[in-house]
C-alpha cells in the first residue's frame, strides 16, 4: 500500500484555495500530478496524496509549482464563498466514483490536447511547406532572370561580332578589287613585253595569297571565345552518431543521452577497501549483470538481486541494473522496491530517444505491474499506456492494458 501524505497545509480566500504538499525528498521528475475540478492527486512513489475537494474549482485556471521539496497549488473557486473544510467526507465507494470520474475527465482532456497538438502540427507543417515552396519559386524565378539576362547579353555580343566580321569582309573585298584594277592598269601601260606582264601577275597573285592567309589567321584569332573562369566548391557533411537525419533528430536530447552513457561506463564509485576481498571479475559491473541474468533464468531471484545490487554499488549509472532488479523484486513480491527500482531506471533513461525506447517500455511495464498488485490500478494503467505508446503492436501488452482498464471500471476481476 502507498504511504498517504497527511502533513499538508492549506489556506483560502473567498475566491482561491492555496494548498501545500511536502514532497519528502522526491525530485521534480518523480512527481505525478492529476487535477480536475473535484479531485487532486499528487503521487511520488511510495507516497500518495489525494484531495476530494469540498466544492468544485476552475481546473483551467489552476496552477501548480513544484520545487524546493514542496508542491504548491493555487485552485480558483467556481463560486466565491468560504469553504467549511478542504475535503468532503465520504466512504470508499464515493471516493472510487470521484476518482473514476476524474480519470475519465483527465483522459478526455489529454485526448483533446493530443488532437489539438496534431492539428497544430499539421498546420505548422503546411505553413512550412508553403513557405518552402514560395522560397523555391522565388529562387527559380531569380535564376531564370539571371539566365535571361545572360542570354540577352550573349545574343547582343554575337550580333555585334557578326556585324564587325561582315564589315571587315566587305572592306577586304573592296581592297582586293582596287588592287586588281591598279595592277592591271599598270601592266597595260608600263609592261612592253609579255615577260614583264607575267612577272607582275605572278607577284600580284603571291601578294594576294599572303593577304588572304593573314586575314584568315586574324579571323581564327577573333573567333576564339574568352577562357572560362575556374573554381572549387567545398562540400561538407554533418557527422551523425544516430541513424536519423539531422533535420528530424533532437540533437540536445541525443547528446545528453550519449553523455550519460559515457558517464555510466566511466563511473565506478564503490569503496576500494570494501571490495578488497572480491575477485577481479566480481569488480566488473557487466560480469555481475550477466551473472544476475543467469540467476534470474534459473529461478534464483534472491541471488540475482544480490548480483545486481553489487553491480549497482560499482556503477550507479546503468539503468538496466535497476530495471532487472525490479523484475526480481516482482518475483519476490517486494512491490515497493520494484516501484523504486523501476522509477530509478526511468530516471536514468532520460532523455527519451529511439535507442532506449525498448528499455523504457520494460521499466514502465514492471512498475505498472507492481502498482496493479498493490491495487493502484490508476497508476498502473498510466504506466501500461506509456509502454503501449512505445510498442503499439504488442498484442500481449494490449491485452494487459485492457485488463487493467476493465479492473478500474469494475467489469473484470483483479488482474
UniProtKB/TrEMBL annotation:
Localization annotation: Cell projection, Neuron projection; Dynein axonemal particle; Nucleus
UniProt keywords, alphabetically: Cell projection, Cytoplasm, Neurogenesis, Nucleus, Repeat, TPR repeat
Residue intervals of the CS domain: 3-87
GO biological process, one term: inner dynein arm assembly
Pfam families: CS
Keyword Nucleus: yes
SUPFAM superfamilies cross-referenced by the UniProt entry: HSP20-like chaperones, TPR-like
GO cellular-component term (any): dynein axonemal particle
Domain of life: Eukaryota
UniProt key word Iron-sulfur: no
InterPro entries documented for this protein: CS_dom, CS_DYX1C1, Dynein_assembly_factor_4, HSP20-like_chaperone, TPR-like_helical_dom_sf, TPR_rpt
Major localization listed first in the record, in broad terms: other
Gene3D superfamilies: 2.60.40.790, Tetratricopeptide repeat domain
One MF term in the entry's GO annotations: nuclear estrogen receptor binding
The TPR repeat ranges on this chain: 361-394
PANTHER family per the UniProt record, alphabetical: DYNEIN ASSEMBLY FACTOR 4, AXONEMAL, DYNEIN AXONEMAL ASSEMBLY FACTOR 4
Protein name: Dynein axonemal assembly factor 4
Protein source organism: Cyclopterus lumpus (Lumpsucker)
